[in-house]
Amino acid sequence: MAAEPFRELMRAASRRNMSWLWLLGWLGIAGGPRCGGEVSPYDGCSTASLELCEPSLGYENPYDGVLTLLDWEDTLRKASLELVGTLPPDAHVQSVRAAGQAGLEASVFEMMREDAFFNRIKELFNDTFLTDKYLGRDNALSLLSQDDFPNLRWYEDFGDGGTSREAVNDAVAREVLELIVHVIRENRSFQEILTADYTMANGHSAPALIGRPGVPLPMGDDRDRFRPIRIPGIPHAGILTSAMFLNRFPTSDTNVNRHRSAKTYDYFLASDIEALGLRPIDADVVDTDDPITGDPNCTVCHAVMDPVASCFSHWNELGRYNPDASWDDTMRAAGFGGETVPEGDRYRSLQWLAKRLVEHPRFPYAMVRLVFEGLTGQKLMRAPDALAVALTMPAPGTDHADLPEPAPTFISLEAQQRAYNVQQQIIGEVARRFVASDHNFRVLVREIILTPYFRASGAASADPSILEEVHTFGTARLLTPEHLNRKVRATLGYTWRSRPDRPPHLLSNYRIFYGGIDSDLVTSRITSPNGVIAAVAERMSYEVACKVVPKELAQPSALRLILRDVDAQLPADAQIEAIDKAIRLLHWRLLGENLAVAHPEIQATRALFFDIWETGRAEIEAETLETALSNECRYTRDLETHAEVSRDARLTDDPHYTVRAFIATVAYLLTDYRFLFE
Amino acid sequence: MNRRDVLQLLGWSGLAAVSPFGNPLASSLVGPRRRARAEDSGLTYSGTFWILLHAGGGWDPTSLCDPKGRANEGTRDPMNMFFTDDIKSAGNLRYAPIEGLEPFFDKHFSRLTVINGVDTTTNGHDQGVRGTWSGRTGEGYPSVGALTAAAHGPELPLSFINSGGYGEARGVVRPVRLGDSADLLRRIARPNVIDAQQATPRGFIDSDSVLEKVRAARRARLERQVAQARLPRVAESRNRLFLARAGERELQRITEFLPSELNDNRTKSQLQVGLAAYRAGTSVAVSIGMGGFDTHSNHDENHLPRLVNFFDVADFALEEAERLGMADRVGMILASDFGRTPGYNGGRGKDHWPISSVIVLGPGVEGNRVIGRTDPRHRAYPLDPVTLAPLDDVNSKDGVRLSISHLHRALRRLVGVPDSLARTFPLSGEDLPLFGPVPVPGAPDAGGEPETA
């Protein structure tokens, strides 16, 4: 680095009364927020060095003989699709075959170093924090004040039609999610998501947040790389002081941060304090002068809620920090758990709060809950409510002829209680191991993958009460649009979209149809399929098969993923062995089924293929069908670049209906339950 | 496979009716009479289409259908900034003098029942939304829209469209999200068609008989998977997929009823899609939400324009129904989380207040009617449970306090939720004649007859 710009940078820091530490930290020289990473006992763990892996104790099957679990290889496939959206590479498969659970654990640790994993983690946490609402245009930047950030719109000089603006905006919008990823990537204690005395910025957003107009800020080689920064004058407390978090969960003059308090309890302590007030409020007896401190209907929540709300009192509705903001005299004093914020910590009360939140016994449980629900798509049970259960049971003396048909099966309170106890025991153990690892997030993910909840694949018992109890096991989640998009790519090497320069359908126009969220108006996912979702999946199957099959068959065999030895120019009955092989491979690759040719499901697919082929061939012979593929299905352009492929590499004709028989067969498999669910 | 086969299959699996912790799936709620009629009919619904319009954040009834105002400029701690002398009326209904509300009230008052002084018993948003639309502030109850759909067409592919508001279905039906793009709807309605706009559209699979073979194989495979499922969660999700697919072809019918161009306003276009789904016989209810009503500061500047927009959308829905010749088959429920505090706070805003209002119209609803009364500070008077006349003393311990539970007991009867279904989600309190006489104990189930035809 040239000396003059560096000196100018230091002078700028001085003028702005900035800490030198942040600059040194930003430059990666020394001090400041560390970005060099912690040494972790899990760092060296890989499939090539199993001896460096600190093994998990694993989990006993709590219903041995009743509940069957995926074997380690199938668990690997499921984990790989879940964590990084790919099928496991050979090295992982071989490691699992050789070392079982140890190989799985090492493979999972390798996955958790991939960028795809960090993208998945951002997606998972955004389902809670919803800060992706601010992606695009200047949605995040418009929340910040130029008074606080004089270089906020530094990109305006570029006149590049909004490209730079979006890069700056999106980096600012992502600060919460990037902080989470940073803590994981650098092997920090996961407590740091709240206690971090820094925030995150990249080469686009750092000039906006800590730069000065006209003063260059060295960006490093990779502008997209996020690094910690400290914004001068801001008492950072991780997520809690992020302007994005504070805007997403805003306050008002009269809400006085109570909404933020409720969210803090919910997200970081897994405590629904609003549920404390479920008993009815009687408007006629509400003390309208001062209900919040004087009326028991209200104090039941507010005694818990308000001290934490007061900890946010220096942060206004736009997330601006104002150390001079006066305390609201009508509110309880800032504090937590019966403790009051000392006078000396008053202006950094969120830092004070963060330390207490992360030491609270419910913090690890809250993190386990968040990650468990994200990875399995399954809500943790709440303690069974005897009254609620009783309400769903047929009333004593009910004439069963009155009940709907077929008669519903009710799960008894006792069975629910036992299922809850088992779940609490296992989840509690996951939380203990997470804490014992110094809150290492990767350990938390590994442990959840090893639990029977992630691995359950079947159950058998003659005792119906046992079957009731195991109702909580096994993931049978409808893939989210993001998951399905990745799975199509992972299995077929193709992204479903109209053209390579367009966004994937499942992340754009079909996202909401398929039950996804936009982090703004639609914030909860649909988890059960409906007619629209089924129709989108069906359309996906036809479009994807129509693109992928001709491309596959136009490629040399060595480059193919699914139809390795099939010849598009031969009739199907002239290449039966190749077709059998392709069908087995399709079952394995798309559905995870490793089946012999004689297996009834392979035979069923095979019968379908030949039935289709004969039907199509007959229609060609009858001249009711053309031999040419439709324009949409012809392989004439590269699916990744849209560039025209050479004439001899094209596939446009299907004289024997072999290509189209595979299009139809692949479409059949792409709408299979095992493809659409995990 | 027809729907009879689907239901049989669900029965064979032995798990069709099982859902976590006592919430039966839709199929389990199909009563024998309705099932028989539905199967014989080919399943199109022609009863009342219910539109649930939710004002998200908690609206201010005193700036709407329970107007209070202020006597003059010197009124201390006014309820509203408009003057009491300016309060408007349409028939028996009174409404706040806010420019933009007239089209709705003046045009439609003869169809409206306004219920004032409804006690939501909460000032928490989540609880308020749940309570207002399910009858219970606690978790676990479906929206009245979902119950309506379960009562009249649980097998319909778009039985309950969730485009916002409270979309919880608790397994009684599968809520569906429809966007506001006619083009995308057309594409998924005919998933095999490459471009539906072409005169002779071609399919990705170019032979109808091949397409039918694929679909048959897909059904057969899922049947085998349902039969083989041994883990209850897996069995349940396979069942759900089966039910989802059972009506996929009916999705095509919607596109025949979509206007060539949808309204530019997103909420209005969602209504148009909902109406098209109904006209195709595939939908019973739609829930739509509009936000921005949680105005803790600068209430009048922020809240009142949103009320005008909200009722503009409601008016649009009724006008559109009229234009399509189905005005007599549309019902509408307009409600919000709760009300807002009497008077203004220091930031000229209004906070949360449990007393609210609900507006209902549609077949079975007496028009030009106001039920309930609140005092000048928006406290609810108790009502005579038989005549619904407000008692003279707001503090009286006699009579009944009109609660969300009362409201939903009556709404369920109005929309035709059979007792067998209603009992699955019981509500406290007594029946009140909000929308007609209360049922006589011991009388046969009056609400269960289907309108699928």
Tell me what the structure shows.
The complex is a heterodimer of chains A (678) and B (453). Chain A is built from 27 helices and six strands. Chain A has helices at residues 3-15, 20-27, 72-83, 90-99, 101-111, 115-129, 163-173, 175-185, 192-195, 206-210, 243-248, 258-269, 291-294, 296-311, 349-359, 362-376, 386-392, 413-436, 441-450, 452-455, 464-469, 481-492, 531-554, 576-591, 600-621, 658-670, 673-676, and strands at residues 67-69, 199-201, 227-229, 335-336, 339-340, 456-459. The radius of gyration of chain A is 29 Å and the shape is globular. In chain A, strand 4 and strand 5 form a beta hairpin. Residues 1-22, 27-36 and 398-409 of chain A have low confidence and may be disordered. Chain A has four domains: 3-32 and 116-241, no CATH class; 254-359, no CATH class; 378-393 and 408-472, no CATH class; 538-676, no CATH class. In chain A, helix 16 crosses helix 18 (413-436) and helix 16 (362-376) crosses helix 19 (441-450). Chain B has a domain at 46-178 and 262-422: Alkaline Phosphatase, subunit A. In chain B, the strands form three sheets. Chain B has a seven-stranded mixed sheet, with helices on both faces. A two-stranded antiparallel ribbon of chain B has the order 2-3. Chain B has a two-stranded antiparallel ribbon with strand order 8-9. Residues 1-41 and 446-453 of chain B have low confidence and may be disordered.
Strand % of chain B is: 5-15%
The coarse silhouette of chain A is globular
Regarding CATH, which class of the domain at 46-178 and 262-422 in chain B?
Alpha Beta
First and last CA, distance of chain A: 51 Å
In the sheet with the most strands of chain B, the strands line up as 5-6-1-7-10-4-11
Mean model confidence by pLDDT of chain B: 85
Q: Count the DSSP helices of chain B.
A: 13
> Describe the biggest sheet of chain A?
2 strands, antiparallel
Q: Quick one: overall form of chain B?
A: globular
User: How many DSSP-defined strands of chain B?
Assistant: 11
Helix content of chain B: 25-40%
Number of helices of chain A: 27
Q: What is the domain total for the residues of chain A? A: 4
Supply the helix-strand structural class of chain A.
Answer: mainly alpha
Structural class of chain B: alpha/beta
Question: CATH topology of the domain at 46-178 and 262-422 in chain B, which one?
Answer: Alkaline Phosphatase, subunit A
The biggest beta sheet of chain B reads: 7 strands, mixed
Segments of chain B where pLDDT lies below 50 for 5+ residues? 1-41, 446-453
Rg of chain A, nearest Å: 29 Å
Instruction: Please provide the count of β strands of chain A.
Output: 6
Strand content of chain A: under 5%
